[in-house]
Design a protein that fits this description.
Elements: E1 4-5, E2 12-20, E3 23-30, H1 34-40, H2 53-61, H3 74-79, E4 88-91, H4 98-105, E5 109-114, H5 117-130, E6 135-138, E7 144-147, E8 151-157, H6 164-176, E9 178-189, H7 210-216, E10 221-234, E11 238-250
Helix pairs in contact: 2-5, 4-5
């Protein structure tokens, strides 16, 4: 796995090297003061809506069913053919593994993480069931080293756990993890989703708009950015008429 836990007092370190499974590259560490990190917390990056994210998600995932289904997100499935064949992909807050396993089955080299051990255990079981390999880890994504420029794609599907100031850090790290020409695939709910209640957080400042995503990923080439309504059938937790937004964006080529 290319991400590793770290605890630094300095604001930023660049130019360090990592070596993992024969691969080498630059680590870009965006470290925050202890006060900042602990105020926001876990993979769900603690805030008033998610005060104990690890416990919350472990409880949700600790059931026999795959609560978000076993198949891939529909937006990811639509865009996966645009990714480099056999490329290296990072799945952010991957939950029970539906997207990482689907990508691995299509020949991608996949790393994935989540804060919930229960979710990662189910993801590993799903990978075994499909006969694929995914490098799964359990950790807080606001307290790890994110490698710079080593992934061909970063996939972030419904990762709407973060309050705005924490979300900005998360988005920045996802972009920095991409190689030149790498592709970000992201999907989330829009504010209109609050009218439907068919999934996602009941917190408007956690939801996405086109303006927010354009501003967050300025400098990337927008391949697709669209807010739309659709009928979700992704497990028991994302089911019914929903207001979503999808983004596919590419970092500048060298």
């Amino acid at each position: 796995m290319l991400l590793a836990t770290a605890n630094f007092d300095a604001r930023e370190f660049t130019g360090l090297r990592y070596r993992s499974q024969g691969r080498e590259g630059l680590i870009c560490i965006k470290a925050h003061s202890a006060g900042e990190r602990h105020n926001d917390g876990g993979v769900a990056m603690t805030n008033k809506g998610f005060s104990d994210p690890a416990t919350t998600w472990n409880r949700r995932f600790d059931v026999p069913e795959f609560i978000f289904g076993r198949g891939p997100n529909h937006y990811l499935a639509r865009w996966a053919d645009r990714l480099p064949a056999g490329g290296r992909v990072l799945c952010v807050a991957d939950g029970e593994g539906r997207n990482s396993v689907w990508l691995a089955a299509r020949g991608f080299q996949v790393d994935a993480f989540d804060i919930a051990q229960a979710g990662v255990d189910k993801a590993r079981a799903l990978a075994r069931e499909h006969g694929v390999e995914v490098d799964y880890r359990v950790f807080d994504c606001d307290a790890v080293q994110w490698p710079c420029a080593c992934y061909d794609a970063v996939v972030a599907i419904f990762v709407q756990f973060a309050a705005p100031q924490v979300r900005a850090r998360l988005f920045e790290r996802m972009r920095e993890a991409l190689r030149p020409g790498g592709v970000l695939i992201l999907q989330g709910f829009t504010p209109r989703q609050l009218e439907y209640g068919t999934g996602g957080p009941p917190l408007v400042d956690h939801l996405y708009t086109e303006e927010l995503l354009r501003e967050s990923f300025v400098g990337m080439e927008i391949l697709d950015l669209a807010a739309y309504e659709t009928q979700l059938t992704e497990g028991s937790q994302h089911r019914g008429h929903s207001a979503v937004i999808g983004l596919a964006a590419r970092t500048p080529a060298p």
